[in-house]
Every structure is written in C-alpha cells, then in structure tokens.
Amino acid sequence: MKTRRMVSKLIYDSERFLKMSVSARDLYTYLILHADDDGVVEAGTVLRLTKGADDDLNLLIYKNFITMLDPENKVVYVNDWLLHNTIRADRKTNSVYKDLLLKILPDVKMVEKKPRTDRIPKLEQHNVDSPELENEIIIKNQEENILNKILNLFKKYSIDENTLRIFQKKFDDDLIFKQLKNLEIEIKRGIKIENISAWLFVACDRNYPLKTQEYKNLSNEKHEENNNKSQKQLEKQLKLLENEID
Prior knowledge:
Elements: H1 9-12, H2 15-18, H3 22-34, E1 40-42, H4 43-50, H5 54-62, E2 66-70, E3 75-78, H6 81-84, H7 98-104, H8 120-125, H9 131-156, H10 161-170, H11 173-188, H12 196-206, H13 220-245
Antiparallel strand pairs: 1-3, 2-3
Helix pairs in contact: 3-4, 3-5, 9-11, 11-12, 12-13
C-alpha cells in the first residue's frame, strides 16, 4: 500500500516558494507525491507524467528545494523531506537510492528502518527466546506509547500536526512528553496559559525539570509575564526555523 504523503505549510506559505512560477510549484508537489520514504524521486519520470519542463526542475535546484543526486537519470532528493513527512520507522521502506543519497549528502537526516512492531509477536510464537529481543520489544512499545500519548495530548490542546512536526524536528519525544506533563500540572494548578504551544516550546527548549503538585501561588501579573516571554521565544525559534528552511 502506498504511503500517504503530506506537505508543510511552512514551505508552501513561504515567500521563497510563492515567488516561483505555478508550473515549478506544481512540479515540486508532484515530486513529493512520487518520492519514496527517504524523499528520493526519479524526476525524469515525474516530468514525463506532468509534461513539465527542465527549466522548472533547474529552478527548484537553484532555490534549494531539491538536490540533484544523479544528473544522468535525474534522480533528486527533496531537501525538506522530514519537514513534510516523518515516516514511522517500523513502516518505512528504505530508498533504492539510499547509498547514492548518503554519498551525495552524507549528513542528511533519515529515519532508520526498524522491524515492524506488529510482527514481533509472530517471532515469539516460533520459540524465539532472546533477552535482547525482549528488551527491544519493551523499548519499541515504550516509544510507541509515548508517541501515542503525545499525539493525544496535542489533540486535547488543539495543537495542529504541523506544529507537532516542528517540535519533533527540534526535540526528542521523551522531552516533549515530559514538558506536556509539566503543562498538565500547571493547568491543574489553575495557571492561565494564553498560548499553550508557545509555553510548551519554551519548556522544551529550556528543558524544565519535572514539576510536582506542590507549588507557590504566583500573581496573575507574573503568569502573564511568563506567557509573554514564552510567546516571544516561540516566535523567535519559529523564525530561526524558517530561516534555516530559506
């Protein structure tokens, strides 16, 4: 089954993207749709399917939206692939061009493929008795549980998926989950948080220690001051991320 592809508003709403021709923007979209799980795609095939022009492909390279891996076969890499799509490690299929990708872009960030978690019980049925395998199963289950809890809490506080991708690009899931627990503790204390995503971003960035239920009663003015600082910090961090993309 073909993996569903998504696109990031951070890219599609940027001036760098919107200033390009419509045909170049369309080509970029089709490259994402046809890319494999590592963000690699045979652009020549896409050009023939869309009747696109080489000029549009060259513009995308010039604007640093894609990197040419193999000029002869027009194999390209979508530079912001992980910002658009983060594939679950146990559902990922490695690119047939993985070696080429790492040769041209040795520092590229990739999702490392892991065994499917839903197939591990089948191994146990075949009398696979290994402490290493048992520990691996426990670790995988813990990672999956944490990710599910993060997704549920983001939905609870109406934080969209694009914001989640920004968090996951900068922070580990364990850190995000710890600060989500801090967030819930603060809310239970009755602290008013105007911008939850801003508060959470700063909490992760500063790696606040895990709070307890005991607390000192701060003034509303102090809470509002902290919220304003969090908002400014988030805006600053988002701007830095956008600059990295540009």
